[in-house]
Amino acid sequence: MISKEENLLRSAEILFAEKGFSGTSTREIAKAANVNISMISYYFGSKEKLYEKLFEFRINESLSFSKDIISNDKLDEWEKMVVVMDRYADRVKNLKPFYLILQREQLANRNPVINEFLKKSKKGFLAIYSELIQKGLDREIFTKNPRLEFVHSTVSGTIFTALNTLPTYKEFFEGDEDYEMQYFEEIKIHVQTILKHLLGYEIQQ
Question: What is the pTM of this model?
Fold first, then answer.
């Protein structure tokens, strides 16, 4: 069972994705969450603060699971890289409303608090990839040391764009539900193939 605060965040997330920040009222959020409108002030203080909290919640959630993977001693560095990438793909697929909001906010660049959360997310993943690559090189799992920026942009950029554009691809190819399921799984394989080349992992196999 989720808390009232998280319930408000999730309800607001859907509305912000559908109607935008300016087009969503606190009354609509309260109604969607089935709570009194005063609960928004109680938990967040304002709609703006609720919006900022949504970014903080989702970004901390993402970085937290990634750090848990890094600390798993049962996996080698390549396996950890694959799990981080797979989990990111799952999040983009399953949290479409949030990633739509995130895309808009990156373009708008209007809220300095949210900009800091976005920087935190990017720097957090850069640190994760840096650690994995360095340890993989030390253990001779990887034979190449690519630019960290390219690794990050390959994973996040490819997955985000591919899933964001899926409805257009599906329409163009007249795809059905099976097309969507196959497409989603093949995105992961596609990114793995690129990463193997960038890291020199495939050469050893």
Answer: 0.88
